[in-house]
Amino acid sequence: MTARGEDKSRVARHYESAGYVVLDQNWRVRGGELDLVVAKDDEIVFCEVKTRSSDRFGSGLEAVDSCKQRFLRRTAMSWLDTHDRRGRLRFDVATVSGPSIEIVEAAF
To answer: Structurally, how many domains does the chain consist of?
Structure first.
């Protein structure tokens, strides 16, 4: 099993290969963390990365419940304020399971 940080880097490389620029990885603010922030054109994408060895306890997407979504939105607003960035926003969820990466765009 790979370490979670390695999984985030794999997802970052996936976005880069699709033409995105990685703006931040593991960005922390008091009370929150963003796994990955990428941008392409005028769109900023906040991606929550979930590592799964199986779907036994649910998928990565299912793990991002309404409470986690609110938390991510608040943290993203802090990131935007700190970086003085504006644009269209999107929240993705990436699930890493072994060698496979599945990204659900605009997950919430």
So the answer is: 1
**Stated pTM of the model:** 0.88
Residue type, 86: R
Question: What is the DSSP annotation of the chain?
Answer: ---HHHHHHHHHHHHHHTT-EEEEEEEEETTEEEEEEEEETTEEEEEEEEE-S-STT--HHHHS-HHHHHHHHHHHHHHHHHHT--SEEEEEEEEEETTEEEEETT--
Q: Each residue of 9-68: pLDDT tens digit?
A: 999 999 999 999 999 999 999 889 999 999 999 999 999 999 876 566 666 677 788 999
Q: Could you identify the residue written with the tokens 């299912």?
A: 62
* Structural domain that includes position 9: 4-104
